[in-house]
């Protein structure tokens, strides 16, 4: 007992130093300062407007005021090379300051873009945002700051409406996406943390989906510490596709450890778990989901009604054969009823139904049915 108390006191006394040591350490996605511990060291990570989130499409609200986004200067990359940097958490490309984003209440200037990915394991993840609980294999973020209200990124990143981030979900398919090779081909030059290389400038818009009009919008945060709740998020509805080989390179080339480190740590699964919405609204710039729901709803309604009408008509006709036995001139009617149910209960009598009046009677029945519907 005394030993346990002693150990407890010892740990308490070590506490402050221990915490200080952890604060100095950089954060990670798993382990000692993994994402469940982020909020102990970076209080905003425990806030109520965190990112990423799961977007439940049936719970999004259509906002006709959400105008199409307009990337400005994304394709005018110029001749100055881009810098590609392994910061130990992801690969970051710094963007020239003339690239900006229109279509938001303020003009936002581009700062950098980076990627999040998984490890190709059985749990199948990689993207940060999910749609209806479904992950994509990776996610690209293009980060901008509000250059109308703030002088620079560091001033803007702590302010509400300070940042605007574009989220692009990445899935794999058969074809190679040449635009992504502008990044992936150079990852082998920044294998270790803190390595930086200059790469040829390229058209950043070629990384984005073609349809920039359909997207989800919500207020959230940086998805890495210090998790500032300053981001106007735009997640595009259309996903971009890269090849499995391209994804594999992204997942297996980089290390989160430095070149000098004895223990090499692969940089994988650098995505944060989805965070609670906490009554935040997620808006959609489009109504396709609702229209589809209405169409499906109406179709189900019509099919249901048709089934009921058919059942009622059958029930009525089931009683008719008895009358038909007494009145032979009504045989044609009896045969029609058997022809109707032929596929369910084949009966030899149906072969005797080739009476000239049958077609007319069936036509009459059809007309009757469509009148009911
Ligand atoms: C950003 O702007 C603030 C406020 O004007 C200034 O104090 C700070 O030095 C700037 N930071 C950088 C990195 O330019
Ligand atoms: C984000 O927050 C601002 C300020 O509170 C509000 O005006 C805006 O409508 C919010 N946007 C979304 C997409 O919820």
Set down the secondary structure blueprint.
Elements: H1 2-24, H2 38-41, E1 54-55, E2 61-62, E3 70-72, E4 82-86, E5 91-94, E6 100-102, E7 108-117, E8 130-131, E9 138-146, H3 153-156, E10 163-173, H4 178-184, E11 196-199, E12 215-220, E13 231-236, E14 240-243, H5 244-252, E15 283-284, H6 288-318, H7 320-326, H8 331-340, H9 358-372
Parallel strand pairs: 1-8, 2-15, 10-13, 10-14
Antiparallel strand pairs: 3-6, 4-5, 4-11, 5-7, 6-7, 7-9, 9-10, 12-13, 12-15
The site of one 2-acetamido-2-deoxy-beta-D-glucopyranose (NAG) has 4 residues, from α3.
3D architecture notes:
By secondary structure, the protein is of the alpha+beta class. The chain has 2 domains: 262 residues, Alpha carbonic anhydrase (Carbonic Anhydrase II); 57 residues. Helix content is 29%, strand content 20%. It contains 9 helices and 15 strands. The strands form 2 sheets. Strands 2, 3, 4, 5, 6, 7, 9, 10, 11, 12, 13, 14 and 15 form a 13-stranded mixed beta sheet that branches. A two-stranded parallel ribbon has the order 1-8. α7 packs antiparallel against α8. The longest helix is centred in the C-terminal third of the chain and has 31 residues. The chain starts with a helix and ends with a helix. 29% of the residues are buried. The N terminus and C terminus are likely disordered.
